[in-house]
Structure formats: C-alpha cells, structure tokens
Write a sequence for this structure.
C-alpha cells in the first residue's frame, strides 16, 4: 500500500492564505450588504417623515377650513333680508319678481338695530322697508340716511342685543386676496348664500345707464365671487370675518364680475349714528370725477393726481370762489385725493359750518382756497 504524500509546508501556507482571503472577502461582502440595508432604513425613515409632514399639512388645511366655516357662520347671523313689501311669499316661483319686491340684503352694524345696505334696496331717506333677521323675526325699518351717489343707506329697526359685523379697512386690500360674499341672490329658499372668490381689481369705475341717463360709480372693488341682484347690500368679507365692502352692481353682459363699495367710505357715518343716533351730512358743493372716469367723458383731459371738477353747485359752498369747473383738486386739508370717494370719506368726517382748505391746479397754476362746508338736504 502506497504511502500518502505529505503536503509541503509552502503549499499549506498558500492554501491557508487563500482560505483566510476567502473569509475576508465573504465578511466584507456581508458588511457592505448590511450597510446598504441600513441606508434603505434611512430612506424609509425619510419617507415616514415626509408622510408625517403631509399629514400635518392636511390637518392644517382642515383646521383653516373649519375656522373659515366658523367665521362665516358667525357673520351670517348679522346678515338680514330686506324687502319693500311686508310679505314677499316664500317661493321663487312667485309671480312677483325681484324688482317688484325690492328683495335684497343688508348687514347689522350695531347692537341696537342700525343696518347698512344699498339705497336702491331700501329706498331713500325716510322710506319704509321690512327687515328679516337670521332667526326669522321681522321688523319694519325706517331709512335714516342715504346717498344715491354712493348707493348706500342706513336703516333703523327697534331691536336690541343684535349680533353685528366687524368693519375692516378697505384701503389695505390687495388684488388676489380671498373674499366671501353673503346675500339673498334669488329669494327665500336661497337666503344667506355664501360664494367665494378673489379681489380681481381695485379702483374700478363702472358706467351705468338708468332711466335714460348715464351715471358712473367709481373706486369700486371688483371680485369674481358670484353676485346676483339679490346680493345687493350684502357684505364682502375677508377670511378673518371683517367687512371690506358692500356688494352693489353686477355687469350682466359678463360672467364672474361683481362689484362692491369700499367700506371705508361709510365708516364715519356709521360711527356717528352709533354714538349719537344722528348724522349731519356736510357738503362741499361740487361734483368731481376720478381720472379713471374722465376717459368716458373727454379723452383730451388728462392728469396724474387729484379729481376733476365737473360741476359746482349753484349757491353752494364753492360757488363764487376761485374754484372753477375744469380745475383739478389735489388736496383737502393736506390730504391727497385720488378718487371722488377719497373726498366723500373726508367730508363725511366733517360737520356743516367747519372749514376746509382746498389745493387745486388750473393748468400749471396752483391755488389754495378756504371753504366753509354747507349742510346737505339729505
């Protein structure tokens, strides 16, 4: 029997080396694989974190949506229906249409029953109309003040402890901001309808043809929130629940365009009624146009700042002064004027008999006069 050949020492060293090398490579492969698994876990953790952030975003959106819903629910308690007839029925299929009924909207601005709306909804001063509150209670209202130039009115009902709206600052609104309109667009069944949109533009001027005559409304807020005729007099509100405008006219020849009167115009009038129960309306005795309206009237007239004096009331405060038709009023008591509503808002803050200083231009000549305000017959 042959003897088994012994392995040489060198060969043993080589085989041992190869085996150790194999173990090292195998160990290194396992280590790399394990590291890759750890990286995948990190990616999974990142995905988990991302999902958590998405969940938080959804929760925040739901929370904001709830806040807006709560705000609108609270605001609608101060929105009223207004009709010129005591009973308008409760069906939109009634033979009486909206124009005959004078159906519209208003908002409560004080706890003791002052209601802001459009003059074309309530009627002029001393008119009677009927107010329906959110809880269904009905009151006869008396129009205490109105101004056809801005299509606004204030009506009084005999009630106490009423919920009332918060007035915002319409001078701070920006194009693109979200707004909500509340009103009674068709009739009883659709009372306090809420629509939403954005502020599409500011300082808009609209030409209106009524009773074979041409009138203009200027410095309006344009919105794409759906507004129908019955929305007139209702609030245009910001997401924080403040009223920034009163819905008024709608261009029927175009879809998705509605307008609101900036709330700042009427604030001084409202405050006077709340504090004293009365309002003495001063007048400066002129009618002027914004530079946005002038192109409708005369394309040859142009100016950068101020308002164009189109008419001076005979025997009014500015009659027999240096101010003439065609002049451009730039300031009143140092306050710059850009729109006719700037002038109205300031005059609403004054009383008959008070004096104001007007700075105006005639061509390149600048002039200054002092005017004593008169009392309007409104």
């Amino acid at each position: 029997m042959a003897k088994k050949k012994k392995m040489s020492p060198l060969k043993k060293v080589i085989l041992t080396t190869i085996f150790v090398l194999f173990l090292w490579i195998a160990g290194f492969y396992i280590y790399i694989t394990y590291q890759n698994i750890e990286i995948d876990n990190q990616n999974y953790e990142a995905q988990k974190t991302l999902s958590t952030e998405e969940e938080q975003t959804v929760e925040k959106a739901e929370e904001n949506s709830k806040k807006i819903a709560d705000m609108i629910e609270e605001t609608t308690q101060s929105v009223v229906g207004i009709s010129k007839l005591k009973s308008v029925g409760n069906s939109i299929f009634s033979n009486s249409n909206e124009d005959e009924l004078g159906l519209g909207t208003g908002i409560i601005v004080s706890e003791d029953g002052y209601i802001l709306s459009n003059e074309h909804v309530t009627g002029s001063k001393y008119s009677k109309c009927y107010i329906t509150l959110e809880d269904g209670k009905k009151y006869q209202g008396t129009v205490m003040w109105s101004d056809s130039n801005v299509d606004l009115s204030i009506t009084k009902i005999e009630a106490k402890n009423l919920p009332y709206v918060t007035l915002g600052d319409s001078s701070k609104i920006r194009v693109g901001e979200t707004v909500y309109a509340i009103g009674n667009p068709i009739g009883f069944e659709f009372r306090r309808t809420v629509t939403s949109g954005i502020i599409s533009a500011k300082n808009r001027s609209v030409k209106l043809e009524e009773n074979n005559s041409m009138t203009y409304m200027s410095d309006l807020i344009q919105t794409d929130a759906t507004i129908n005729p019955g929305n007139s007099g209702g609030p245009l509100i910001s997401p924080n629940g403040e009223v920034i405008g009163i819905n008024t006219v709608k261009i029927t020849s175009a879809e998705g365009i509605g307008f609101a009167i900036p709330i700042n115009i009427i604030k001084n009038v409202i405050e006077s009624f709340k504090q004293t129960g009365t309002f003495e309306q001063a007048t400066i005795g002129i009618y002027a146009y914004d530079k946005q309206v002038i192109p409708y009237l005369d394309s040859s007239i142009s100016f950068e700042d101020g308002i164009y004096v189109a008419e001076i009331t005979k025997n009014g405060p500015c009659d027999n002064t240096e101010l003439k038709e065609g002049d451009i009023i730039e300031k009143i008591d140092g306050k710059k004027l850009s729109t006719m509503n700037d002038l109205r808002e300031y005059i609403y803050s004054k009383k008959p008999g008070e004096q104001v200083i007007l700075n105006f231009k005639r061509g390149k000549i600048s002039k200054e006069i002092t005017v004593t305000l008169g009392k309007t017959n409104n």
